[in-house]
Amino acid sequence: MTYVWMAVFGGLIGWFTNWLAVRMLFRPRRPIRVGPWRIQGVIPARRAALARAMGQAVAERLLSAEELLQELAHPALREQVAAQVVAAAAARLGERLGWLPPPLSQLAGGWLGGIVRREVHAFFAESLDKLLEEARAGLDIAAMVEERVEAFSAEELERLFLDIMRRELRFVEWVGGAIGALVGLGEAALSGWLR
After folding, report:
1. Beta carbons within 8 Å of 142's beta carbon, 6+ residues apart
2. Coil, strand, or helix at residue 159?
3. With a threshold of 0.70, does the pTM exceed it?
4. Would the CA dihedral through 120, 121, 124, 125 be positive or negative?
5. Residue 132 has pLDDT above 90, yes or no
6. Rounded average pLDDT over 37-47
């Protein structure tokens, strides 16, 4: 029976300490002064450094400005955008030419639609690369992510982390319980052996 109780208490202590450690990542959200010490959750206390690190990680490892601009310059996307612009222009032309008799409005619409189509494709061929190059100079993904993370409240930041890592953090708690139970069994065995 000693083995069972030692395993149970060891498991509870291991689980509780890991549970508390996970909670202390986020809490207390605001610093609490205890004598000369300041106690605050790790993530709220280091939010600025965390935001900076997340911004750099996203920009360097997940989605660089260069990769984003390459996707925007992809020929299929260009064609899709051009087709939408042409369709919108054709619809507007149809509205504007509605006063003409049907055969004439269709003829004029087809002629003007062809001009619009050529001009949109010419614009994309001539100007889009220049626009993307200008965007490249001003696009700082790391700063954007850092600014967004900095703007989160402590509650929102906790919710974000828990949404992403809830299962993993729960696993850490239960592993602490399992390790504590093993330590409890080891202590019981050691104390029985030393008697």
Report:
1. 55, 56, 58, 59, 60
2. helix
3. no
4. negative
5. no
6. 89
Q: Contact 157/149 with Cβ under 8 angstroms?
A: yes
Check residue 46 and report its DSSP letter. Answer: T
Three-class secondary structure assignment of the chain: CHHHHHHHHHHHHHHHHHHHHHHHCCCCCCCEEECCEEECCHHHHCHHHHHHHHHHHHHHHHCCHHHHHHHHCCHHHHHHHHHHHHHHHHHHHHHHCCCCCHHHHHHHHHHHHHHHHHHHHHHHHHHHHHHHHHHHHHCCHHHHHHHHHHHCCHHHHHHHHHHHHHHHHHHHHHHHHHHHHHHHHHHHHHHHHHC
More confident residue, 34 or 69: 34
Q: Do the beta carbons of residue 173 and residue 25 sit within 8 Å? A: no
Which amino acid is it at 25?
L
User: Which amino acid makes up residue 104?
Assistant: L
Sign of CA dihedral 124, 129, 133, 134: negative
Domain ranges across the chain: 2-194
Question: Which among 95, 98, 93, 99 has a CA at the least distance from the CA of 116?
Answer: 93
Per the listing, tokens 């992403």 go with 164
Q: Strands, E, within 40-105: which ranges?
A: none
Looking at residue 171, what is its pLDDT? 92
- What integer best gives the mean pLDDT of the chain? 82
